[in-house]
Write a structure and sequence with these properties.
Blueprint lengths: L1 E7 L2 H13 L2 E7 L7 H18 L3 E3 L4 H8 L10 H21 L3 E4 L9 H11 L14 H11 L11 H7 L1
Parallel strand pairs: 1-2, 1-4, 2-3
């Protein structure tokens, strides 16, 4: 099996993606890097779910740094953008850049992301951003296809895992309040 670094936005989304990657002949290493998640309590809840998914599915999980201040500094100019706008594109880029770098550091030839499993995320945009970073290494996928999102939700119900109700950033959270 070929190795792939899987950027994980949350453990639930990782579930169907890990299974699909294995069906395709890849062995994923999870990489949780999400400086966008606020508040910090929410960040730790999502790490715990990622750890639970890694344990249940038997994959290694690496935790990236939580550099939320840097993320806020880079995105504050887009705080009034609607969900799915320029702020989200920049957020995708920040996280995918780090995943690309981490894959190279670890000597893993490929990287991809769970971001495209969400029915709320623009897979075409996510794939364009990642392909611009490293087209030879990025596994371009739309993981919501083949019932990816539905399978992930079933996984969360089966194991009674915490499910968030907003993307993660303070701006998306505030728009839900």
């Amino acid at each position: 099996m070929q190795r792939v670094l899987l950027h994980i936005c949350c453990g639930i989304c990782a579930s169907s993606v890990v299974l699909r990657l294995r069906e395709e002949g890849f062995e994923p290493t999870g990489f949780f890097y999400n400086p966008n998640i606020h508040p910090q309590e929410e960040y730790f809840k999502r790490i715990e779910v990622a750890r639970q998914a890694a344990s249940l599915l038997g994959f290694d999980l690496i935790l990236g740094i939580y550099d939320k201040d840097n993320w806020l500094e880079k995105t504050v100019q887009f705080k009034k953008e609607p969900e799915g706008g320029e702020r989200c594109a920049l957020c995708f880029k920040i996280r995918l850049e780090r995943a690309n770098i981490k894959a190279q550091e670890l000597g893993i030839d490929y990287f991809t992301t769970t971001l495209s499993v969400s029915s709320h995320k623009n897979s075409k945009l996510i794939n364009e951003i990642a392909c611009a970073l490293n087209p030879a290494a990025f596994l371009k996928r739309d993981f919501k296809k083949h019932n990816g999102f539905k399978l992930a939700m079933g996984f969360s119900r089966r194991y009674n895992l915490y499910r968030q109700n907003y993307c993660g950033c303070i701006y998306s959270r505030n728009s839900k309040i």
